[in-house]
Write a structure and sequence with these properties.
Helix content is 31%, strand content 32%. It is built from seven helices and 13 strands.
Length: 280
């Protein structure tokens, strides 16, 4: 059965969502993990957001008018971020995922780095990305729950202001080796010591990212965010910071899923604390 690969259009949203939903649900249920998408409507919302985003390049695999796979790459910054990538279970092990990835990597050939997060229990995708030249640079734990402790009073906590951008950019460059401060931040907060920003977060969640000079700075930031939220928090913690992960567990959070941060190209080991999102 022939499968063609092409760029997406808005007409692909529903078919893309259906294939993505079934693909993730099948692999997650097989390994007894919560699915990436809560339901088909969630997958449709994600597909619409990805396909209509001007900064996201997207591809679908199509067979006889049916969408059987898809892949997305965020091109907002020089570092390209891939995900999600999926193939309907009926069409797996036919090289479709490899073809989708090859086309994305060809497009990103001039990027200094291409990054993604991968479900560590999915040996098929781990083998695919490894064969394509990606290296696992961090093992990640998705933690979720409510914190027991209240924030300490020795840190100033507030929203990030436009006048803080330069300081945030400098901190991001120092810690992570790249500039990732958004131009229109939403739900972006920081902590300060002696009038200087020592940690900030963009939507402390699997969709945002968090970084800081030290684990103490990041703990202070997290507890202040937790005090503002009524429900659970969910975010990624690299195993590189075992004390931070143990602290999350002691605070009442639990690990819901293991992941890997994988990189093809340049990578700087964080000089501080960096908590990635589901892209990097």
């Amino acid at each position: 059965m022939m499968v063609s690969i092409r760029q997406t259009t808005e007409a692909d949203i529903e078919g893309c969502a259906q294939a993505m939903y079934v693909a993730f649900l099948t692999i997650d249920k097989r390994h007894h993990f919560p699915s990436y998408f809560t339901d088909l409507d969630h997958a449709k919302m994600a597909a619409r957001t990805l396909i209509t985003n001007d900064n996201t390049y997207s591809l679908v695999g199509e067979s006889e008018g049916r969408i059987v796979g898809s892949a997305f790459m965020n091109e907002t910054r020089p570092i390209r971020a891939i995900g999600p990538v999926s193939v309907h279970p009926d069409f797996q092990k036919k090289g479709i995922g490899h073809r989708l990835m090859d086309m994305l990597l060809d497009r990103a050939s001039d990027a200094p780095s291409v990054r993604l997060t991968q479900d560590a229990f999915n040996t098929g995708s781990l083998a695919l990305y490894t064969s394509l030249g990606f290296n696992t640079v961090e093992s990640l734990a998705l933690v979720q729950g409510k914190f027991k402790s209240q924030p300490a009073s020795d840190f100033e906590f507030r929203p990030v202001l436009k006048t803080d951008y330069d300081e945030c950019i400098a901190l991001c460059q120092k810690v992570a080796g790249f500039d990732r401060v958004p131009s229109n931040p939403i739900d972006m907060f920081c902590v300060l010591r002696d009038g200087h920003i020592t940690a900030y977060t963009v939507t402390l969640s699997t969709e945002g990212y968090t970084l800081g000079k030290s684990e103490d700075d990041v703990r202070a930031l997290i507890l202040n965010i937790a005090a503002k939220k009524s429900g659970d928090l969910a975010f990624l913690v690299p195993h590189t910071y075992p004390e931070l992960l143990r602290w999350c567990l002691s605070e009442g959070l639990h690990i819901t899923k293991p992941l890997n941060l994988m990189v093809k190209g340049q990578y700087q080991t964080p000089a501080g604390v960096y908590l990635p999102n589901l892209l990097y």
